Amino acid sequence: VVGDIKFGDRGEWAEPRTVGAFAGLLRAARAGGVPVLVMGRGSNLLVRDGGFPGLVIHPSGGAFAEIAVDGARQEITAGAGVKFKQLAGAAAQAGIGGFEWMEGIPGEVGGGLRMNAGAMGEETFGQVTALTLLDAAGNLRDAVPADLEIAYRHVSTLRESYVVRATFRGRAADPAEIRGRMEESAHKRKASQPVAASAGCIFKNPSKECPAGKLVDELGLKGRRVGGAVVSDIHGNFIVNDGSATATDVLALIALIQVEAREKRGIELHPEVQVIGEDAPAGLRPSPDPR
Do residues 108 and 115 lie in contact, with contact meaning Cβ atoms separated by under 8 Å? Predict the structure, then answer.
């Protein structure tokens, strides 16, 4: 630990616990020409087998774990490292509705905002009223959603501006009704999504009438395999790891599905999962993680 920054064994992983430390890391990386990746829990992230050649910053704990509830305004301000499940729980405890859909999303506020995560017909920016950001030079600024370029599962403005905290607005609701909706959301997720290791939903839905999972199912691709990567039998928009998959396997299976969708249905499937990093050196197949 150096100051209030925790570094990994090899030095390229940092976990700042204050906004100042986060800003300092960004400034140092910029000055040194070091590539930066800011990530949350990595729920929708696929890292190529050669890894990421730079500094990975994971805002964690401290200022990034803080939650403040304003019951009078039906608002909650949460740090970038707050899990969606925690946000939903804080809202339920305060009698604030509208956050129930977040209960089962395995992500954090920062990452969820970066990709405008959504489920059950809702999306993150549908509730955001204000944000605090750090730009790539480490400068702090306040913003509102109108300042950002927000799209379906993508917020391009947040490529090089990083969320520090955000304020979400809900609505007054009966606590019993909130609990019921949270239980319904959790049950639906458990019943319809695999528990095996995955990077979450692989493709963006081509349209509301044609969800990606339904399309993959109709193409008869459930169970299709490349190496250790397998299309889930439970939900066609998930590629699961049987314990031996590499990123190369997953990417090859993604490409196979895209070809099938294009040739058989004339539909272009675009990845929802974020792919980063470098390929492994030619001829080297990474060994599966022994954990």
Answer: no
Q: Which of 152, 146, 82, 85 shows the shortest CA–CA distance to 115?
A: 152
CB 202 within 8 A of CB 273: yes
Name the pTM for this structure. Answer: 0.83
Q: By the 8 A CB rule, do 133 and 162 touch?
A: yes
Sign of CA pseudo-dihedral 186, 192, 196, 199: negative
* Helical pair 175-192 and 84-93, crossing angle rounded to 10 deg: 150
Residue 103: exposure state from Cβ atoms within 10 A (0-12, 13-18, ≥19): buried
pLDDT in tens, 120-168: 778 899 999 999 999 999 999 999 999 999 988 889 999 889 999 999 9
Can you list the alpha helix ranges (DSSP code H) found in 18-83?
19-32
Tens of pLDDT along 164-180?
Answer: 999 999 999 988 899 88
Of residues 31 and 63, more confidently modeled = 63
Cα distance between residue 177 and residue 92, in whole Å: 10
Residue 199: its H or E element: strand 198-201
| Residue 36, beta-bridge partner list | 55
